[in-house]
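Supplementary Methods, section 5.1.

A reviewer requested that the exact input to the structure prediction be made available. We therefore reproduce it here, unchanged from the version used in the analyses.
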Amino acid sequence: MDFDQEQHDGLSEENKVDISPDDRFEMGEWVKIKKIDHESQQNMEPEDYFYLKGFENKIGLIREQKKNRSGIFSYRVDFDDKNFGYFYGKDLVLMN
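The structure derived from this sequence is encoded token-by-token as follows.
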């Protein structure tokens, strides 16, 4: 189990807040990578599915945010000193 996940295992479902893709996350916020449901999987490219599947339900800290030319934000999420990933807001759930 990751160090960050150990710190946050005590959080109840009521402490998790869904954020729409239009809302922005901020640096330093704790987030959880969403579990991929069957419907989402059907609309996803295989490489996206396997990338996200490797991070599913992990909890990490937003360390970087970038805005592309279309105005869509992506986020670097650090899970520990050696593990991180890049995600869109639609893939994240804010942890309170």
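The chain has three helices and six strands. These observations are discussed further in the main text.
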